Target: Adenylate/guanylate cyclase
Amino acid sequence: MILRIPIKNRYIVSILLGFIGLSVILLAEYFFQESFQEWEEKTLDYRFRLRKSVILHPSISTIGIEDSSLQKIGTWPWDRSLHGRMVTLLKSLEVSSINFDIFFTARSSEPGDSQFFEAVRQAGNVILSGPFELIDHPCFTPKEYQAFSRKYSQADAIISDLKTIKVDNTCIDFNALSDQQWNDLGQEAGLELLYHTEFAFTGEEDAARLELLLQTFRYPFSSEHPESLWYANRAYLPLQELIRAAVGFGHVSASPDSDGVFRRVPLVIRVQDQFIPHLAFAAVLHYLQVRPEDVIIYPGKYILLQNAHFPDTTVAKNIRIPVDERLNLRINFFPSWKAHAFADILAAEQNPEIAAFWKHELAGQICTIGYTVSGTGDIGPNPLIPNFPLSFIHAAIMNTILTEQFLYELGWGTNVLITVVLLIFLGAISPKLDPYRFTLFLFLFISIYIGITIYLFIAHRIILNLLIPVLPSLILGYTLITVYWYATEDRERKQLRSAFKTYVSKQMLTKILENPTSLALQGQRKELTIMFSDIRKFSTLSDHIEPEVVHRLLNMYFNRMTKIAFDYDGFVDKFIGDGLLCFFGDPIFHPDHALRAVQAAIDMQKAVRELGPEFQEKLGLDPIVIRIGINTGYVIVGNMGSAERMEYTVLGSDVNLAQRLEASATPGQIMISHKTYEYVKHAIAAREIGEIKVKGFEHPVQVYEVQLPFE
Model:
C-alpha cells in the first residue's frame, strides 16, 4: 500500500529531512574534522589556481643564497664576514630593512663574527629570526595533570620537587630534571613533560640568550585573550652579540596543514609573558613605522595596525589584518617570485656601475635574505606551487599585508546559516518535481553554488565553504528526501533509489559512518645508521627533458635503489624529489647496521653505473651520478604525525648530519662520519678526508670516503 501524504505535510517533511542531513554532516564533521578540512582546503587550492595574478608590492625583495651564489662563493656555511659585508653593502644601497631568514645560533670564525656583529650594529636596520616550537599552552591544566598522573602513576613522586602551581595549573621545571629522574620517568612521560614545560633550554647559553632577547626586543602589543595565542617553549636563538646589535627579531615558525601544504602562519606568538611577531610581521611594522603600542590584537577577528605610514604617503592609516583565534594569517600567495642572487649583489662592492644598478633596484626595499638552494629540505608546497622555497613565505606575508589583499573567511556559523537557507529552498522545491527533474535541479543548484564560491574568491577574496557543510548536506538531504518519498509513495523510484544508495554508499556514506582508529604518538631513541643520497644536477636535468622521461628515469632509479636497501634490511623512509632517505637498524635490528648501510651504498653506486647503458638505450639520457652521505648516531624513531596522517620516520641532529654529509660529498662519492667509520673499518676500505664544517654543527666533523671496490 502506498502512503498518501497531504501536500502541506510533504513540504514540512522534505525540509525536516534536509535538516536531518545537515545534522548528520555536522556530526560527521565533528568526529572527522581534520579530514573534512583537508578536502575543503583542496577546493580552495583549485580556486587559487583559477586566479590570474595578485598585485605585488614594489618594496619587497628576497636575496637568495642559491646555487649560483654557492658556485661563486663556495660551499655553505660561509664565513660570517660575507654576511657582514652584505649588511654593510645593503645599508649603503639604502634598503629599508635587512631581514635574516638564517639562524646564527653558533659561532663561526672570530674575525668573521666580529665583522658581522659590527656591521649589524652600524646598519641599524637588521631584523633577526629564529625557529620556535609551538604548543597550545604552558604547564598542565588540572584535567591534563590528572590524566598524566593516571597514565604515569610513578611520575608524581619522581617530579614532586620540580612542581609549582601557577593559577591552578601545574608547572614542571623540565630544565631541572636530572638524568636519573628522566630514566625513572621513561621517555614517553619525559617527552610529555617537555611538551608542557614553560621553556626548555637546549644549550648552556639558551637561558641567557632568551633573557637578553626578551629584554632587548619588547613588543608590548595590546591583546584580548592572549591565552588563545600559540605559546613557544623551545627555540634556537641568535648569538647574544647579534641580539644586542639588531633592531628587531621575529619567529619563523610555520607548520603545514595536515595535508602538508603551507597556507597560513601565526603573526604573533607568546614566549613566557611577552609577544614575539613573525619575522615578516616585524619587518612590516618597521617599514610602516608602527609602534608596538599601536598594535591591537583581537583573536579570531583581526590585528589592528594604528598610524601606519607608507613611505610614499603623508597621511597615516589604520590596517586591519584578518586572523583566526591563533592569530594565523591566511597567506594570499602569488603565482611566482624570483630572488636576487646573493653573489650578484655582493659584486657591487668593487664596481660602481653595479652598485648604482642595485641601488636603483633595492633602495627603500624590505630585503629578506634566505636559503633558496634547489634540492634542500627548505622547500614545501603552497596552494599554487608544489615546490615553493619556504624563505619566499616572508615575501608572500608582507605582500598580503602591504597590498591589503587579505583573504576573508566566512565563519562557521555563516556557512551553516547559508546551508540552512539552501536546504529550506531544496525542501520546498522537491514536492513540485519528479525524481528525474529533482536530480537535474540538484546538479544545477550545486553548479550555481560552485560558480558563486569561485566568483566571490576571485573578485572579492571571500572564502565561502564549498564542501563543509554545504554540498554534503545538500547531497545527503537530497538523498534522504528521494529515498523517503520513494519508500512512502512511488514504487517506480525503487531502481533509482537502489542505484543512488549504492553511489552514495561508495562515495560518501562509508566515509561519514566509518570510525577512525586512534593512533598514539610515540617514539624511542635508538642508535641507527642514516643514509641520504641524491642525483647530481637533477634539477637542471629535469628542466630540459619531458616530464614523462623524468617519471620513467626516477622510477627506474628508485626501483633499483629500493631493492638494494631492502636487500640489507634497510628502511626506505621517503623520497625527496630525486633524493632518498634510508635508515638501518630499525624496525629490524641488526648489530652491524652501519656495515649494512655502507655495503648498500657501495651496491647503489655500482647499480647506478650499471643503469647508465639502460638509460641511454631506453631514455636517450647520459648516465647519472649520485652522491651518498652516511652517519651513525642516536636518533628518535617511530610514528610521527597526527591521527589521520602518520609517518614512520627518524629525526635528530644525527639525521641532519647525514644529510649534510651527502650535500658535502662529491659526485660518485660515499662520505661517512667518524662514528660510522669506527663500526666498518674492519671490513670496508676508506680514505680519511679530514675535518669539514657542516651547517648547523658548531664543531668540524671528521669524515671519510669509502673506497669503491669496483673502480
